[in-house]
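Q: Structure tokens for this one, please.
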Amino acid sequence: MSRLLVVDDEQSICWGLTRLGESMGHEVVAASSAEQALEVIEDFKPHAIVLDVRLPGMDGLTAIEQFRERVGRVPIIVITAYGDLETAVEAVRNGAFEYIIKPFDLDQMQRALERALESKRPADNDSLRHGYVEGMVGRTPEMQEVFKRIALAAASNACVLLCGETGTGKELAARAIHRYSTRSDEPFVAVNVASLSPSLAESELFGHVRGAFTGADESRTGLLVQADGGTLFLDEVADIPLPTQVKLLRALEHGEVMPVGSSETVTTDFRVVSATHQDLSQKVPDGTFRHDLYFRLCTLQIDIPPLRERRDDIEELAKHFLSGLASDAHTSTPDLSPETLAELRQRPWHGNVRELRNTIEHAVIVSRAGTIMPDHLPPPAASSLVPAHGHAGSTEREIMSLITQWAEAQFSNSPEADQLYDQLLRIIEPPLLTVAMERHRDQCAAAARSLGMHRTTLRKKLDQYEIGRDE
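A: Here is the predicted structure, written as tokens:
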């Protein structure tokens, strides 16, 4: 039987976790404050602690150090209803075993407790630095997971791959990893690989000596050496030319680079955080990205969700941008009307958080510091204005998002709408059937097999939608 200490000022949380712990066969004691918990552990030595952040008196994060002094490296599961990046990093920095956002389900907590009680010692994250990274905003479970993984990444020296669509905030995440790492006092060197011409990429990254090529009138220190001791951020890493990939891999494995035109290597120690909106795992079999470099860069992968998958963050993000713009202009922060918030929530946001920021800035200019109404917003960005999303599953997610928007619009315009399922089928079936018939040269049997339907059913649908075919 293990001993579990629950520290939370909400009686319902204490009651629920007590019942959970007892059902798992453990002895459980609950405390409503950190001060009370510190008294309890004089006689009750827990094997694991569940600790709330917001407590009356001493807060949970401050209490962690005192728990450590009195009961050693007992795994501590931090719970909070006010999750942000700073809290996540501070929790991991103080050695928290797990970081869970309220409200949580008991299955999630049970799994965390099982892992905690099985562990002998949580990772030592005392090297993490305290700070704040501007722009990382979000309280949805999706962003809370991102914050937690950023905190874990910052506590290590491993290579990190940030994946996500354009405008989701990959560089902000990279800067957060650097800011909270032990390298934070050293350089953060950012380079957009896509902006480098193939002929100059090697020189930019590795440097060159004088006379190495036409126009090399003087020696140049490469970005990998400039990042010595710090972090090198490779944005759009999928666009690194193949010849340069070989040299980058060697630099990562041996900690040395050879400038163009030189026969001598230069030692450098840097941590790589890379980012891409493409699916690197698909570029490996295509032969456009080396598999050994892929595995070297992707020690830890962090997926940053598109804005349309975390719509509950839109209001907080919008107000965050409004506050920043007002501060820069030394004016009061404008209000967002309920209609404007509703409009912001339903937009597709192909440009993600970057598009939202531009939208808010446009609205502030047009509204002249008054309440922002829907007509102050610019039109939504067309999907054609942003790069194609190469991230796995993004096309399916886009389709699901569009269908969701269509359904919400139908019910809003006509609360008693009926036959919506048939309406949807009339929209999505014809293009699917047309492509299937074209791919199979108008052969119904082959098209039906690929669609997973009986050919008689397919024939009826082709007739229904008047889709031409050869008999």
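A few notes: Residues 120-134, 390-394 have pLDDT under 50 and may be disordered. The first helix runs from residue 11 to 23.
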